[in-house]
Design brief:
Blueprint (H helix, E strand, L loop, with lengths): L23 H8 L5 H4 L2 H4 L1 H8 L6 E5 L7 H11 L2 E6 L13 H4 L3 E4 L13 E7 L2 H7 L2 H11 E12 L17 H11 L2 E6 L37 H7 L4 E7 L2
Parallel strand pairs: 1-2, 1-4, 2-3, 4-5
Antiparallel strand pairs: 5-7, 6-7
Helix pairs in contact: 1-5, 8-9
Length: 263
Amino acid sequence: MTFRALGFAAALTLLPAAAFAQDAALTAAAKGAQRDPTSTARDGARRPVESLAFWGLKPGITVLEISPGGGYWSEILAPYAVATKGRYIAAMGNPTQKLPAKFENAATFGPISYTVFSRDSAALAPAGSVDLILTARNIHNWIPQGTADKAFRDFFAALKPGGILAVEEHRSDPLPTAEKVSTGYVHTNDIIALATKAGFRLDARSEINANARDTKDHPYGVWTLPPTRRGPAAGAAPAPGYDRAKYDAIGESDRMTLRFVKP
């Protein structure tokens, strides 16, 4: 699936990390002892404070995170909500899923709310009740599953007018050959098209999470790179030219960082 033919402009102003104010509560949450060392070790690649500031995180708002996994962003967003009298909602794959057990510590992480996001899930939240929705490294899964359109419709319905959809995703451009869904990379204009179709307006993009070392032609897709570090299956010969040291030196993927707004 490709939407580049629709003619979305690629020249929207790129906003540097330094352009966004960082509040004390966000910095404190990012540096807090509640974060796992495996999370903080990735901060140089993921730039959480700068990314959240770019996306428009503010005190007192309701933030809904889609498919938080082990809780990299949750470790920051939930304590931030506690400190600023906001609300953090985690959208899991089914009603029985929760974040890891440490998030049950209400003094640190507050009363985390849960909702369900899946192929056939109902509304994420009451219509127009959420200030910011974050989806990080998920859309490349939804496109081959045929659920991307539903996802963006669900996001649009849950957000307030003026609410923000924050997107981080592995970026295939400028290499069209890397856009195959099996690689885990997606073209920026395809994301913009999905969001625009749902009613969103692209507000800004940033190079906060760019990585010029990423050649996007790895033998096991984006998962060849850290943190997954996928290699040959047990007993299988490695792909031609496979070089673990080379992929580790590249680091985490080149990623788009986009901010959409619900008009």
